[in-house]
Amino acid sequence: MTKTANTGSRNNDEGKRQQPSALENFKPLIVDVAVPLGSYYLFKGAFGMSTFAALAWSSVVPAVRTVWSVVRERRGNAFAGLILLVNVVSLALSFVSGDPRLMLAKDSGVSSAIGIAILVSVATGRPMMTEGLKPFVVKGDAAREAAFERLRTGSAAFRRTERVYSLVWGVLLLTECVVRVVGAYTLPVDTMVWLGTVILVGAIGIGMVVSGGLAAEPMARMISAEVTAAEEEKTEGAEDVEDGARREVAVAA
After folding, report:
1. What is the DSSP string of 163-174?
2. What gap in Å lies between CA 226 and CA 244, rounded to an integer?
């Protein structure tokens, strides 16, 4: 019994050592989203660079991350690729000029590019938004991380819900783009200057509610159920081993 207790204690210690920190859990979001976004405002605000130059220099990290993942890991880095796409589209749109309505309409170009990229990722079976959702559903827990990966490879229902999450955001961003373009050419310019931001913020709020109810919460429940099932299976296995040891002792006696 002492040996079993020591083994269990050692396994718990190993589990604690292996459990990722919050920083490690959110590392993809920090490196692929926060760093490029922060560097853009740093270059533009602190160093006084033009919008074009700031976008170009802030694209360096996502560009390197995208190339590195393809060359070294033989797979695309979805988040880094998405931020790189956003910067490239923004660079292209920086050359667009014209009447005020065109300038308002072009702001929706980034949303449409992101929406299309997300829908393409869903169609190809690699939903792009999963990497952004994952830290929030695994919560930095090693057992939930393992359960996530098991479900991702072994559960059709989990993969379907994973696709739904990205699909909601892809459709929503494209819809937001269409609404802003229509508004830019049908509403007074002064109205769309502030209404465009309201539409974007509203779309994000709706996306969080809808994607949470249709996908994020069901995925979290499936992960919790998988963790519980794995723990019960481990407990039953340990009990079977202990029962077998007792029988062997009884036979030997």
Report:
1. HHHHHHHHHHHH
2. 27
pLDDT digits (tens, 9 = 90+) for 145-201: 999 999 999 999 999 999 999 999 999 999 999 998 899 889 998 888 788 888 988
Per the structure block, which two tokens stand in for 95?
Answer: 């050359």
Find, among 127, 133, 204, 120, the residue nearest to 166 by Cα.
127
Identify which of 99, 21, 94 has the alpha carbon closest to the alpha carbon of residue 55: 94
pTM recorded for the entire structure: 0.67
**Which two structure tokens, joined as six digits, stand for 183?**
């508004």
Q: What are phi and psi of 64, to 5 degrees?
A: -65, -45
Do the Cβ atoms of 122 and 167 come closer than 8 Å? yes
What does the pLDDT look like over 93-120, one tens digit per residue? 666 666 778 777 776 777 888 888 889 9
